[in-house]
Write a structure and sequence with these properties.
Layout (H helix, E strand, L loop, with lengths): L17 H4 E3 L8 H4 L9 E3 L3 E4 L8 E8 L16 E8 L5 E3 L1 H5 L10 E8 L8 E7 L14 E8 L5 E10 L1 E9 L2 E8 L7 E3 L3 E4 L1 E4 L12 E3 L6 E4 L10 E8 L4 E8 L5 E7 L4 E8 L5 E9 L2 E15 L6 E11 L9 E2 L4 E10 L6 E2 L3 E3 L7 E7 L8 E6 L7 E5 L4 E4 L17 E5 L8 E5 L4 E2 L8 E5 L13 E2 L7 E3 L6 E3 L7 E5 L6 E3 L7 E6 L2 E6 L7 E5 L3 E4 L2 E3 L2 H4 L7 E7 L4 E5 L2 H10 L3 E9 L8 E9 L4 E5 L2 H10 L3 E11 L7 E8 L4 E5 L2 H10 L3 E10 L5
Parallel strand pairs: 21-25, 28-32, 37-39, 38-40, 39-41, 40-44, 41-45
Antiparallel strand pairs: 1-36, 2-4, 2-35, 3-4, 4-5, 5-6, 7-8, 8-9, 9-10, 11-12, 12-15, 13-14, 14-18, 15-16, 17-18, 18-19, 19-20, 21-22, 22-23, 23-24, 24-26, 26-27, 29-30, 30-31, 31-32, 33-34, 34-36, 42-43, 43-44, 45-46, 47-48, 47-49, 50-51, 50-52, 53-54, 53-55
């Protein structure tokens, strides 16, 4: 076994309560009731605030809260033909600098009237667009508020920007043409930052296509001639569903790749990778379809109408209307290439009925997150696994962030539910994510039905994410509880109590792999060619190597084992922590099979105990091998000297004691000292003869020097003159006690 001392067993891990990581705050957020009941909503029944932005607008280094409240159609108008705007109101709550907020809409805009945008916000973001040191806010706007949407132009609206004027004031600007916008993104380019919009009704003119797909261009804008204006439109590959820019690791200010939804000529949607050519024009480089097959089936709608509809097979499921509605980018491990993450959703119909038709009423919601590589300008779906993924949630938004403070980016899904609690999947660093237990997050039931959702942000700038929960999907204007709840994050998430087993079959060339308290298995497929740090946590964990044990060597550092292929072309070194089983193509091996300690006649072997900072000596090869294989705190340093020849007349017994208080061993050849310890120091457990030492110098022997460490109350022994001199010169806490006895050198 590589590791024996593992700390708490899985059954002994302290269970964390909700309050361990999040504490409900009071008197931080002002009441939002006045905004829900604003007269401008007239007789509307429901008010939503789906897209909310948390960004520092007043430059006090604390995030401010930007809410966009809007009302949908009343029940009697649902599905009706409606034109004109949707009642809405933009509200800015500025941080007061003391952990509380107050309405700062007038302070920022100097508008005496409530701020209204041109419709309903669908996506939002913030960025210092005009490079004046202030964050700017952007909304993708449409009028999709429960109206029929027929003709489609009735869903059209201008999108909105809240642009800093550079003096602490902001201007509200419409931009784009009137369109059915649903997506928005910031794209750094070589000539300045661009904001892109994707709309359903109209294109900016260009059609990107190949033989199977097409994409009507979206609308891109740079900063105009003034600080609060926009350039003429740029034709860009941004679909209304969603798109995402892939950061350019060679130049983060110049995006070279964008992944966007594309429309398939045969029906449905796929994904396309767009790259910049040598003339800085966007071209379609590669496509990827999320489904393995597509066919047309008999279909009965909710209203009972029989017709035909296309269905796709996705990961073994028959899915109706598969599409992508949210996206982002992440790195699987530090300094790795960025990959795209897309939320694919639809409805699953398990089987047709006896009449051979699929029924819409049998469909169940389906949602999953897919990952794509863009290396070599080719879009390829990655075989990334999410253990415990909830594929039935109703959610609009996903996010990628590190919630566990391990430099690995985790997945956050913000579903609508009664509690509004997020769903988080922790990253192992090697193509496997695992669901974090729900009890790590606030589970306070609301009376908002399933309209509650949440968002992480660091409201007090302590480095730990906080969580705001509210009825983002809409509640009645006269609802008795309209105030949102802010939970302060008290610490980074600790998920060491995850006991679900994890199997990593593909390392994705990761440099960092982390698992927790399950019985985990990690294979060496696609290992990093340089080195990988692997910490498997609690549980009985196995690492599987594809070659036989004689192709590897090992060494120890602290409580880790470094396993290195003898032939570097077969892979890099693994630094293993908390791995119990080493498996090779020829079977399970012990650590001694890789370290291969050399047996020396009368050899005394030295270990360094990283827990106590002391050394341990053993003259037994059986004990030596047992310590190597079972005690991860003991680092093997090899043979340090040889015991005295027992046939020599000057050879005599060296006695060994174990100090139960310090966890260290003591060696003496003096019977007087031995007897005194036995009589006066009960914490010293006598272990008998350790080996033989010379009572005087004999031909070829060398002195074994003894030091007393006044800090730890332990002794140190060395037969090396250089080591003795270095300790005397540099370690004043080590009192030199002279020669303990004489021994033979390893060589000689």
């Amino acid at each position: 076994m590589v590791s024996k001392s593992k700390g708490l067993k899985s059954s002994e891990i302290i269970k964390m309560s909700n309050s361990t990581f999040f504490q409900k705050t009071t008197n931080v957020l002002p009441s939002l009731t006045p905004y829900y009941r604003w007269d401008g909503f007239h007789d509307q029944e429901f008010v939503s605030s789906t897209n909310n932005v948390f960004a520092d607008l007043n430059r006090d280094n604390l995030p401010d809260l930007i809410f966009h409240f809007w009302s949908g159609q009343n029940s009697e108008n649902a599905g009706a033909v409606v034109s004109g705007g949707s009642p809405n109101r933009l509200v800015v709550l500025l941080s007061n600098g003391d952990g509380t907020y107050s309405d700062g809409t007038f302070t920022l805009t100097k508008s005496d009237n409530p701020i209204q945008l041109d419709g309903v916000s669908r996506k939002s973001l913030h960025h210092d667009f005009n490079a004046d040191g202030y964050q700017d806010i952007f909304f993708a706007i449409n009028r999709e508020d429960g109206r029929s949407g027929q003709p489609p132009e009735t869903n059209n609206a201008f999108s909105a920007a809240i642009l800093s004027a550079g003096n602490g004031q902001y201007e509200i600007k419409n931009f784009g043409i009137e369109n059915w916008y649903h997506s928005i993104g910031i794209i750094p380019s070589g000539t300045g930052v661009e904001v892109w919009l994707g709309g359903y009704s109209q294109s900016s003119g260009q059609i990107f296509r190949d033989a199977t797909v097409q994409l009507a261009s979206g609308f891109g804008y740079k900063l105009g001639d003034t600080q609060t204006s926009f350039s003429p439109v740029i034709q860009v590959p941004g679909h209304a569903n969603t798109f995402t820019a892939i950061p350019n690791l060679l130049d983060l200010d110049n995006t070279k790749q964008v992944v966007s939804v594309v429309d398939i000529f045969s029906g449905g949607a796929g994904l396309g990778l767009f790259v910049k050519d040598s003339d800085n024009n966007w071209i379609l480089s590669s496509t990827n379809f999320p489904h393995s097959s597509q066919t047309t089936v008999n279909f009965v709608s909710h209203s009972g109408n029989l017709g035909q509809t296309p269905v796709t097979e996705l990961d073994g499921k028959v899915v109706l209307a598969i599409g992508h509605s949210a996206s982002g980018v992440l790195q699987l491990f530090p300094d790795s290439p960025f990959i795209a993450g897309f939320k694919a959703s639809g409805a699953v119909v398990a089987n047709p009925r006896s009449d051979g038709a699929f029924y819409e009423q049998d469909a169940q919601p389906f949602s999953t997150i897919q990952f794509y590589s863009t290396e070599n300008d080719t879009l390829a779906r990655l075989p990334i696994t999410i253990v415990g993924e909830d594929q039935s949630q109703n959610s609009n938004f996903i996010e990628f962030m590190d919630l566990t403070d391990d430099d690995l980016t985790d997945i956050v899904v913000y579903p609508y539910s009664n509690t509004g609690s997020p769903t988080v999947y922790a990253n192992t660093g090697a193509g496997v994510f695992i669901k974090v237990p729900d009890n790590k997050f606030p589970q306070e039931a609301t009376n908002w039905g399933n309209a509650a959702s949440s968002k992480f942000f660091d409201y007090n700038k302590d480095g730990v994410q906080d969580l705001i929960v509210g009825p983002m999907n809409g509640i009645q204007r006269d609802h008795p509880q309209q105030d949102w709840v802010l939970f302060r994050g008290t610490d980074y998430l600790n998920i060491d109590d995850i006991t679900d087993p994890i199997t990593i079959t593909d390392r994705f060339e990761s440099t960092v792999i982390k698992t927790w308290s399950g019985d985990d298995i990690i294979f060496d497929t696609n290992s990093n060619s340089n080195s990988t740090d692997i910490n498997a946590g609690n549980g009985i964990d196995t690492i599987v190597y594809s070659l036989s044990v004689d192709n590897y060597t090992a060494s120890e550092i602290n409580k880790s084992v470094i396993v290195t292929p003898i032939d570097p072309s077969t892979g890099g070194a693994d630094t293993l922590t908390s791995i119990e089983v080493l498996q090779f193509s020829d079977g399970v091996a012990q650590l001694t099979d890789l370290i291969r300690p050399e047996d020396i006649d009368r050899g005394i072997y030295r270990f360094f105990n990283v827990d106590t900072g002391t050394h341990f000596l053993s003259g037994s090869t059986v004990e030596r091998d047992s310590v190597i294989n079972n005690l991860d705190a003991f680092n093997f340093e090899g043979p340090t000297f040889r015991a005295a020849d027992p046939t020599n007349a000057a050879a005599d017994t060296v006695f060994r004691f174990f100090n139960t208080q310090t966890g260290t061993h003591f060696f003496t050849q003096s019977t007087v000292e031995r007897d005194n310890i036995l009589d006066t120091l009960p914490q010293f457990s006598f272990e008998g003869e350790a080996y033989k030492g010379y009572t005087e110098q004999v031909d070829g022997s060398i002195p074994l020097y003894r030091f007393f460490n006044t800090q730890t109350g332990t002794h140190f022994y060395t037969a090396a003159e250089a080591e003795k001199d270095s300790i005397i010169d540099n370690l004043p806490t080590f009192n030199f006690e002279g020669t303990a006895y004489w021994v033979d050198p390893v060589m000689g």
